[in-house]
Amino acid sequence: MDVLGSGHEQVVFCSDPESGLRAVIAIHSTALGPALGGTRFYPYASEQAAVADALRLSTAMSYKNSLAGLDLGGGKAVIIGDPRTGKTEALLRAYGRFVQALGGRYLTACDVGTSNADLDVVARETRFAHGRSEAQGGCGDSSVLTAYGVFLGMQAAAQHCWGSRSLAGRTVAVAGAGKVGSHLIGRLVDDGAAVVVTDVDPAAVARIRARHPQVTAVADTAALVRTEHDVYSPNALGGALDEETVAVLPSRIVCGGANNQLATPEVAEQLRGRGILYAPDYLVNAGGVIQVEDERHGFSFGRAQAKASGIFDVALRVFALADAAGISPAGAADRLAEERIRSVGRLATIRLPR
């Protein structure tokens, strides 16, 4: 793997044999500010797989933070191991010391396999851990604003396609009923949409149906994508949109909270060719990172929600640019994110007299 050719500013390999820590911290860009991105704790098959994930995810964070209008670059960390069996105070604190050693170039937060409580432990060793528990003065669970942003992105897509932001009378197929998916379903039901859901965890589906009996459940994602619906919403693992899935989707819109939904870049053009409007994942799921960023200033949910509300207007800009330029919304989102990194990022090179 050509790490040096990846375009990243810095990749740090972290090892602490005493605690068992093996981690990778990837800093893609600090052009707009310190690199913010979560810590993923996952049993990677190899160190090479862990590095590849860190590089991919940190690049996506640069684009996400830029498009969200944040003065932050992109980074990501991955800890190699099973969070159910390998997570200890000693390991998390060892990891915190590596984050602290970067001097604020990297700001960490939660991701798959880590929680607000874990970040509280990491924060005992570093000033640069965010997304902490409310009990420790942090922003707490970021899934509420993540789902809010996805809902706004879906409304913007509805506005672009059908001339009304309301999803009343539309059918939304939701893949994944975890934290983000469950909050999203609540908003969709309140807006008058019909919801069809699936999840690998039957208990998650049962909780949704107990709260919203009008929601229909299907056995798995293969059944879900063949169900008649207007909007498809992937809210579980990445890579949900591959050539085979897109070929059978009846949707007019795809908009979900999962990261890295496109299995390959070519899928964006396949969606466009089928007349399916794709709301780029890193645009619509930015509510969570907006919430975490607000913690740096003394957390205010109202202030963070107000900033996340901008996702609606940014999504409309992305769709308009895509139409005008004859490109996919994924390409349009990348273009806007890169433009801000280039233009605003140049300000970092200006040194005012002391």
Note down, in words, how this protein is organized.
It holds the Pfam family ELFV_dehydrog_N. InterPro entries: Aminoacid_DH-like_N_sf, Glu/Leu/Phe/Val/Trp_DH, Glu/Leu/Phe/Val/Trp_DH_C, Glu/Leu/Phe/Val/Trp_DH_dimer, Glu/Leu/Phe/Val_DH_AS, Glu/Phe/Leu/Val/Trp_DH_bac/arc, NAD(P)-bd_dom_sf. The chain has 354 residues and is of the alpha/beta class. The chain has two domains: 4-60 and 73-135, 3-Layer(aba) Sandwich (Rossmann fold); 143-339, Rossmann fold, CATH 3.40.50. Helix content is 44%, strand content 16%. The protein has 14 helices and eleven strands. The chain has helices at residues 47-67, 89-101, 116-122, 143-162, 179-190, 202-211, 221-224, 243-248, 266-273, 281-284, 287-295, 301-308, 311-325, 329-345, and strands spanning 10-16, 21-29, 35-42, 73-80, 106-110, 171-175, 194-198, 216-217, 231-234, 253-254, 277-278. The strands form two sheets. It has a six-stranded parallel beta sheet, with helices on both faces. Strands 1-2-4-3-5 form a five-stranded mixed beta sheet, sandwiched between helices. Helix 9 (266-273) links the parallel strand 10 and strand 11 (277-278). Helix 4 packs across helix 11 (287-295). The chain is globular. The model has no long low-confidence stretch (mean pLDDT 95).
